Amino acid sequence: MNSPVGEKKRNGSLLHPYTNPVRQQQTGTTLTAKGDGVHVLDGDGKRHLDGMSGLWCASLGYSEPRLVEAARRQMELLPYHQTFDARATAPALELAERLVGLTSEFEFDKVLFANSGSEANDQAAKLIWFYFNAIGKPRKKKLIARTRAYHGVTVMSASLTGLALNHNDFDLPIDRVLHTDCPSYYHYGKPGESESDFVSRIIGNLEALIEREGADTIAAFFAEPIQGAGGVLMPAQGYFERLQEVLTRHGILLVADEVITGFGRTGQMFGSQTLGIKPDIMNIAKAMSSAYLPISATLLSKEISDAIVEGSNRQGMFGHGVTYSGHPVCAAVAIEVLNIMQERDLVGHVREMSPLFLSRLKRMEEHPLVAQSRGVGLLGALEILKDKSRRVSFALTDGIGLVLKQAALDEGLIIRPLLDCVAICPPLVVTPSQIDELFDKLGRALDVTLRTAQ
Ligand code: PLP
């Protein structure tokens, strides 16, 4: 059914993810009815610049005809077939090859498809356990992630996530997951502590954790190159270098969760390139299909995939797989995303747009509510504080995030308040005038918020 333009709010049977359900019942639901480039239109026709690319994912905007055509062509030819039982469709095969080629500097060997970022992290955990069993190290089972990490919402990926909201009353995290420090110096550096001393301190905490638990019980470390949903948190200078040295020394695998940072967001194809990370496993989703259809993947090093092949042979077969793994229509769209990115040099475009994006972001620090700006490529955040000189946060009950979100919507801008910050992640196809539009609107929304807060 087409969304009826003119109708803005309606209540219904939908349980909205990440929404206060009581408030939603009072305010109703805002209908998103149409997409047009970097803009979306509500049911009443109100137009918004989508400063979040949906949920950090619609990188090519909302009306790329080539993605529609790629899906239509594959739908007509073969709308579905599976990758179980030594069968595959041409798009699934081609996409796996293209992804291995695209990540050649990381030397991945095999690709396992799934449908979402959560599933990619979930299956990575299972594959890690299977790998260590296959190579005769069955005690290596624990997984380390960081506070303020976001890895998804399945039992496993929510356990890896380091946010209370995803654990409280869900009886998570599960036992095999441990959390260590978030590497944001701005947030967790102590007064007077240098950035390199901060890194030494948190790496020391990690070493102490490994010592306590026993390196022979720890399998892998999960990390987003830049922690996204936890607040667009930049790792301290030198953090990943020190981290990787510790992990290598203890035989602990590194999993890069590139669900947000993959496919050009940071100004390189992958955040691991921007941050100098050499992962054993990489998880990708979101912008992989520009969010037009759900698809994700886990990329495995040769050492891991060889062991999985051998272990599976001993079992009789590889005992894992979901119905829609490598779905041909989703894969066809993802291939077309790669074609478009290459033909239009979209990563180059991100590098070209980034200086304007980051300078407009930086200028927002002049606003009384903005304590800090941070960003890379076309990913950014503003720290919103009640008293920026004394670093005092607003109380959750002040509802300042909601005020800012609504003020931005009134201006025709979608942004995402997260804890003490507001995240900004526009489609990668954004133009200079649209970047100006975004920050002009955000500035006016902050002014309204300030007047409300006073
Ligand atoms: N990993 C990261 C870094 C994410 O940002 C997200 C979602 O925002 C996920 C995993 C989970 O992905 P999904 O919502 O597709 O399950």
From TrEMBL:
InterPro entries: Aminotrans_3, Aminotrans_3_PPA_site, PyrdxlP-dep_Trfase, PyrdxlP-dep_Trfase_major, PyrdxlP-dep_Trfase_small. CDD domains: OAT_like (cd00610). Gene3D superfamilies: Aspartate Aminotransferase, domain 1, Type I PLP-dependent aspartate aminotransferase-like (Major domain). Residues 1-10 have a biased composition (Basic and acidic residues). It comes from the Bacteria. NCBIfam families: PRK06105.1. Belongs to the class-III pyridoxal-phosphate-dependent aminotransferase family. This is Aminotransferase.
